């Protein structure tokens, strides 16, 4: 919004749907330009503009005509005129569009039962269609009978075509002009297009007039069918089209000429898309070229005509490609003699009527439209698929959600109109667009207001809109005075050569401050000497995120102080677990404990690396007061009366954890090597309390007899073990000696044997 640099409320609301204009007279700070009145709504409120002073007009929609879709059964007693049947709702509405703000409305479509149908049969009467003509002669009554199953209001017409009546499409010799066929064939003179029978409900008349038709002939294979289609589309009065379902059956066994082919016959003028029927004959085929496909699409769509191409198998591929270019058209395969034409028409009609496709007329410049469809069986479509629904049966209802958005205001601010309609149907929705390009307060403006420097502007929406040739916030200058050095002097601070502190422009002797790329950063002040982004920072944030930067000085929020608002006055972070600030050992500065005794540390001065624990610190005093002994026995009254002491019978009676005051449980030895137990706590008033068990636990003396008996028994057992070991070793030694003796004894026996024994 700020980047739009809006000079008026109207320019502001065109900048975007979220932009508002503050019309409060004293809203602007000194040095701020008029465009600073334009900002998003939240920013304006934060700057102090009351909601009632913010101009923020919104778009709207209003339905002017909203007839319900028709619920009517075939064969009902009431006979409605075609114009009384409604298939689309609403029919007319007004959209008030603000730039960038879409307006959405729903469009309902319902296929009415027993809806009237006009069918025009356009037939190629070149010689190759001779056998087809015989079958078509009885088409009127037969088709009437079939169509009665669909509608009780059916009309049929007939037309024929051959080719342009110039060379090289036909032979222009007198004989060939009278009878273009060869041999004994009796053919009618060639023609471009003839309206044989305008639309009628009399099937017999169709049979009678078609029965009188004769085949004609031409030279080339493609036919002049496009000339005939154009005349059928634009000659509504002669053909007799009503505002009902309009079907055009185009029957041929050949291809087609299109725009540009007329040059072969020396015809260069483009088709004018107008009706040229005289006595039911197209009279300008020799003067205008064939129409283009795009031209045909336009005229068929304008006149809500749905086309059915009944062509032979040979040309199916060509006409299927043509079908893809012509919306709401179908292709059917015609038998060689047109015997299946009735079933072809019925099938093609069912196919065409089961699909609805929305189209809109040309939109005004800067207006866009989008569609979303809600079709049968939960099928939804968006973008191009949002324009259509398929497989719709009679009585089915579908919904389209349509968004219309204006991206700019028209220069003349006039209202515009466009229409939406389903292809092939005559009904349409008319949409009138009204553009919200000005604010309400502008209509209340005061021209030549005294508030705008002696009437040099219109005072509107809290600001001056200057007359031509005048500038300045109050229109106080003419454009001739803008560059005057006398004016520049008013834009310099004392003892300074800088104009507007180099942060703005001097206009009419007043500084208009520059805008920063970041729209949240603003220069202000009479000489643009102030800003809201050059204050001290903490943790990378302006004013530590705890204040507002005004003219390069931080204005801190409550409970914060310091040049960068980085000093908190809140003492909660300094509160120790015992409820004391910094445990009573320091002061709370900027939310942090500053310990007065250097031996204490920690967030709340709770830690002391060189200090005795609570238990060791108070052991001697508790011992002297509770048991009248210990190192401080003599000085107990002087040094140990700083706490309240309570005696308890046993350890179970000592205070247990969970009480409000911080508590320490202690177990210490006295001078007699007895254990004594006590607790130490400090209440909320800072008073120490000691609870001590009145009877110390002293260890009993040793029992001598068991000790002596144990020692003697140990000695005896050790002696017995040593004797057993000695005895075992001696037995092993004796056995070894005995074995050695036995061995030597055996050796001696062998030495005493006599010599004779050898």
Report on this model:
One of its GO terms (biological process) is muscle organ development. This protein is of the alpha+beta class and 758 residues long. Among the domains are: 60-73 and 82-113 and 358-436, Immunoglobulin-like, CATH 2.60.40; 117-354, von Willebrand factor, type A domain (Rossmann fold, 3-Layer(aba) Sandwich), CATH 3.40.50; 484-531, Laminin (Ribbon); 537-568, Laminin (Ribbon), CATH 2.10.25.10; 614-693, Hormone receptor fold (Irregular), CATH 4.10.1240.30. The strands form 14 sheets. The chain has a six-stranded mixed sheet, with no helix packed on it. It has a six-stranded mixed sheet with strand order 10-9-8-11-14-15, with helices on both faces. β27 (504-507) and β28 form a beta hairpin. α4 packs antiparallel against α6 and α7 (225-234) runs parallel beside α9 (293-302). It starts with 8 loop residues before the first helix and ends in a 7-residue tail after the last helix. The relative contact order is 0.07. The model has no long low-confidence stretch (mean pLDDT 83).
CATH superfamily of the domain at 117-354: von Willebrand factor, type A domain
CATH class of the domain at 117-354: Alpha Beta
What is the CATH-assigned architecture of the domain at 117-354?
A: 3-Layer(aba) Sandwich
Based on Cα principal axes, name the global outline. Answer: elongated
Strand order of the largest sheet: 4-6-22-21-16-19
- The value of Rg in angstroms is 55 Å
As a percent range, the share of strand residues is 25-35%
Report the span from N to C terminus: 143 Å
Count of alpha/pi helices = 16
Here the CATH topology of the domain at 117-354 equals: Rossmann fold
Percent helix: 10-25%
Question: Low-confidence parts, pLDDT < 50 over ≥5 residues?
Answer: none
- Structural class, from secondary structure content? alpha+beta
**Mean of all residue-level pLDDT scores:** 83
What kind of sheet is the major sheet? 6 strands, mixed
Query: How many DSSP-defined strands?
Result: 42
